[in-house]
Amino acid sequence: MRDIIVFSGSSNPELTDRICRNLGLPPGKVELKKFANGETSVHFGDSVREKDVFIVQSGAGHVNDLFMQLLIMISACKMASAKKITVVCPLFFYSRQVESQASKRGVPRGAQHRGSKVPDSVPQSPKLPSRANVRDPSPKSVLSQRAVSTHSSLKTLHTNEASIANPTGYRSWIAQSGTLIANLLTSAGANHIITMDLHDAQFQGFFDIPVDNLLSKPLFQHYITNYVPNYKDCVIVSPDAGGAKRAAALADTLCMPFALIHKERRQKVDTAQAQSELMVHSNPSTSSLNSISFATPGFPGRRSPSSASNGHSAADQQYVATTMLVGDVQDKVCVVVDDLADTCNTITRAASLLKDQGAKYVYALITHGIFSGDAMRKLKESQIDKIITTNSVDQAAHVAELDAKEMVILDVSRILSEAIRRINNGESVSMLYDHGW
Amino acid sequence: MGIQKFVFCFHNVELILSLGLSLTPVDIKRDSNKEVSFSIGESIRDEDIYIIMQIGSGIVNDKVLELLIMINACKTASARRITAVLPNFPYARQDRKDKSRAPITAKLMADMLTSAGCDHVITMDLHASQIQGFFDVPVDNLYAEPSVVRYIREKLDVNNAIIVSPDAGGAKRAAGLADRLDLNFALIHKERARANEVSRMVLVGDVTGKTCIIVDDMADTCGTLAKAAEVLLENGAKEVIAIVTHGILSGNAIANINKSKLERVVCTNTVPFEEKLKLCPKLDTIDVSGVLAEAIRRLHNGESISFLFRNAPY
């Protein structure tokens, strides 16, 4: 292979090493660090002039830092006369923003999580409270009132309702970052994107450059046929309606039965009443601490995952989520398939529902295991018997943490390196949609 | 023309108050996977939007992404014009290809702001004013100099002072200030081994018995300032005061200042450093929010901004 060089971002150097080993290349020399003030610095040690440059960066971890680093790397390569710059991004940045913006009722995704039956993740943004403190002692009443509604540290349903409950009847405009991310990559100088199991296939349309969306389906197929005993008797389960197509495709190929978990969200309490209650508490005279303590009773953190199937608890007055299973799993081995597991609410809830419905054993097949927040704790406590994920996200820390439960990491580097080889050679990539690895 | 609205401001509440406007309620959240989500609580259709973002040290990249997402959300929400007010322009120091294959990140920032949908940028004391040329949209580069001049006149002994530039790059800025104040001017020449590090320093000019005012556009780890103060005192200076526009004060800057021979370090509030003010008794602030507020008012009303290059409002 001529004129090819593969660089690694700081998100997943191990994956890059594997890709390079498959390609028989040394990874490109690049020095990634930060200046004292937090700005990212990139220095390439290898020439990229007139070369086919591939930059591997996965969108998990400190996403914004990694994304900026990627943009700076792309831009530096472009300015250093690279012939073509291809971004290899197994887990795409901000890929969930598009669909997850709002439900049918326009409730932001964050709010949906509040109604869930599984303990929520603790928000991992330590900067926020101090920021709020700075703004709180503002002298003018108008501002402090507004400040309550913009209070970023209160990640509850109530704050979302507050911003929605505008006297003008305006419903919050929610940022959709898909096109922005695409435009940023293109304007930085990317010529081609390789990604894997995009959460939304429509994301490809946001780009003006080619996007190759590789699939992990063949990997999972291979795993199921070779490692799941009597796989023909197992049931493929999609944990939500959004993933039904993906799971059904897998079930079809393997001639396996298919089941679906459907989440239904009903409003229990009149929202107008809830909002008037909220207005009292977001009064400028009360401090922000009050509104925090008000918000806590609704915070669904104190319920056990086992009450998942019939959770009409008194504490949860805003929304009642009923999950129901479509299909039969009695005494069956279930294989839950999803493209992405972040806080693991969906997947752990699905597993406990399946066990309630008489499932014998639950496998979870997840392409991108981000496992942020306290996801690992949830997985440990959950009913899932075996987790199968890929190394599209660096899993070293997760494997170390999850000792009791068996965790299998499948290797995606071969698919990615073959795609890189084919793109470099100008061969067709479509063979990779249905390989047998 | 719609009523002027502000989308967001993290720290600079007094700036908004001085314009007599209210903030648009917005909600910025960091998801547990550290992605940013953003929503706007009232209609901004056909409004003139100003997004004020103070970017200091630490979470620069998060702030940049937040800003871009906010700009893009405003654009898709049919705002008429979006102005980013960035008192301290991020990545301003990476403005040239100083090594082979080094990124010109300031140019990347410009491209990103434009492609996110930014129509106008207001900033202050750009590290290199040429960065304005990286943009395809108008950039108003304001100066902290009028505010600094006022501070020196009001709070320092002007008659026995001398302006010192800590490096050759800042000579022009320091000389300009010296001219405004009708003071003498000295220069420290330094040889830098690596970024954020200082090596040998040579003083050019006479500072014996004078109050030295070191002027720079940016103070990061403050290693340069501390070394410069030592050099000046060795050469017989009476006392040394540093005035910088952007007090980023990252790393162990506070410790450096506290143990240095600097009498005082004065920064404008382009970068938030309230909490550092408590840790370091030598720090002092110049408020430039009035300059920014006046620039926003003039920009919104279509008036000339160049008045602010020489004069500080109020």
Automatic annotation (TrEMBL), chain A:
Q: What does the record list as coiled-coil region(s)?
A: none
**So what does this thing catalyse?**
D-ribose 5-phosphate + ATP = 5-phospho-alpha-D-ribose 1-diphosphate + AMP + H(+)
Please state the Enzyme Commission number of this protein.
2.7.6.1
Similarity comment: Belongs to the ribose-phosphate pyrophosphokinase family.
Domain of life where this protein originates:
Eukaryota
| UniProt protein name | ribose-phosphate diphosphokinase
Q: What Pfam family is a match for this entry? A: Pribosyltran_N
Keywords in UniProt for this one?
ATP-binding, Kinase, Magnesium, Metal-binding, Nucleotide biosynthesis, Nucleotide-binding, Transferase
- The species this protein belongs to is Ogataea haglerorum
Give every Ribose-phosphate pyrophosphokinase N-terminal domain span: 5-103
Is the S-adenosyl-L-methionine keyword given for this protein?
Answer: no
Q: Where is this region: Disordered?
A: 103-145
Q: Which PANTHER family match?
A: RIBOSE-PHOSPHATE DIPHOSPHOKINASE FAMILY MEMBER, RIBOSE-PHOSPHATE PYROPHOSPHOKINASE 5
Root EC class:
transferase
From TrEMBL, chain B:
Q: What is its EC number?
A: 2.7.6.1
Identify the InterPro entries for this entry: PRib_PP_synth_CS, Pribosyltran_N, PRTase-like, PRTase_dom, Rib-P_diPkinase
Would the keyword Metal-binding turn up in this protein's UniProt record? yes
User: Which residue range or ranges hold the Ribose-phosphate pyrophosphokinase N-terminal domain?
Assistant: 18-117
- What's the domain of life for this entry? Eukaryota
Substrates-to-products reaction catalysed: D-ribose 5-phosphate + ATP = 5-phospho-alpha-D-ribose 1-diphosphate + AMP + H(+)
- For the keyword Nucleotide-binding, the answer is yes
Name the enzyme group at the top EC level.
transferase
Q: Where is the signal peptide?
A: 1-18
Swiss-Prot/TrEMBL keywords: ATP-binding, Kinase, Magnesium, Metal-binding, Nucleotide biosynthesis, Nucleotide-binding, Signal, Transferase
* Pfam family for this entry, one: Pribosyltran_N
What's the family?
A: Belongs to the ribose-phosphate pyrophosphokinase family.
Q: Which NCBIfam families does the record cross-reference, listed alphabetically?
A: PRK01259.1, ribP_PPkin
What name has this protein been given in UniProt? Answer: ribose-phosphate diphosphokinase
Species source reads Ogataea haglerorum
The organism that produces this protein has a lineage beginning with: Eukaryota, Fungi, Dikarya, Ascomycota, Saccharomycotina
